[in-house]
Amino acid sequence: MIVLKNVGYDSFYATILKNINLYVKSGEVVAVVGPNGSGKTSLLKLLTNQVEPTSGELFLLGKTHNDPDFKLALKFVTYLGNGFYLDLDETVLQHLKKFTSEHKLTEYYVFDLANRLQLRLFRKLNELSIGEQQRLNILKCFANPGKIIVLDNPTDNLDPFIKEVVYDLIREAQANNSAILLTSNDLYEVEKIANRLVFLIDGQIELDKTLEELKRPKERIVKVMNTDHIIILKDLVLEGYDETSYTYRYTGSMDKLLKYLSDFELFSFTIEEVSLYENIKRYCNRLAYK
Q1: Per-residue DSSP letters for 82-149?
Q2: Fewer CB within 10 A of the terminal residue: the chain, N end or C end?
Q3: What is the pTM of this model?
Q4: Mind listing the pLDDT tens digit for each residue in 247-273?
């Protein structure tokens, strides 16, 4: 669906993206994360023809960006950006009726989405909060989703309950075989909805892995309190310490660990499993500061 081969993008003043190689297939959700200024939004702009590559090849639905038919492929791309409605003196209801008519959609489906996103239909567009405007954008995106969906920080400015609605909409589009590429600043969000994570730094892809690949062998955090004894055991790595405790990361057998700990007169210890979120966070922090 989406293929980038050695794609680069230069602005007037700087190189923004370098040697981007990326593939997103139907029914896949790929999350792009990275520090501010890493090129995430520029990557999405390439996919929506807001800017053009300065090198390499970009394919959407098999059409390269140099192909005269590329504009036909763009008709199957749905983009969620940050368009606002500050100057429009019409109600949400009026706006959605026009939108429904222009795109030949059924009113039942559109207004069901409005209900799920808790939009106030009789409020004027120029009176909407930023979060409400974002919800309206989300409705218009998922009321008429394309074969390719491109989402720029889709849950920014949204409350936790509406975020869950957006996650459901993304899953529904995925189930309908759309290829979905999104940016996010929330690793918990990535863990919930993405199949793959792409990490951008300084315009280059430093990591491209499935979430399954990011799951390390079952790992636990072991915290041993009120002891001066440093534990030495295979698969047990000291992570840190303070005046009252030592913290370790452990990937071995639980039976072996518990037997070993029972040989010492310890005041107490705790054992916690490491979440996928923590693993993603460690990967990203290591890449950002390497």
Answers
A1: ----TT--SBHHHHHHHHHHHTT--HHHHHHHHHHTT--TTSBGGG--HHHHHHHHHHHHHHS--SEE
A2: C
A3: 0.81
A4: 888 877 778 878 777 776 656 777 777
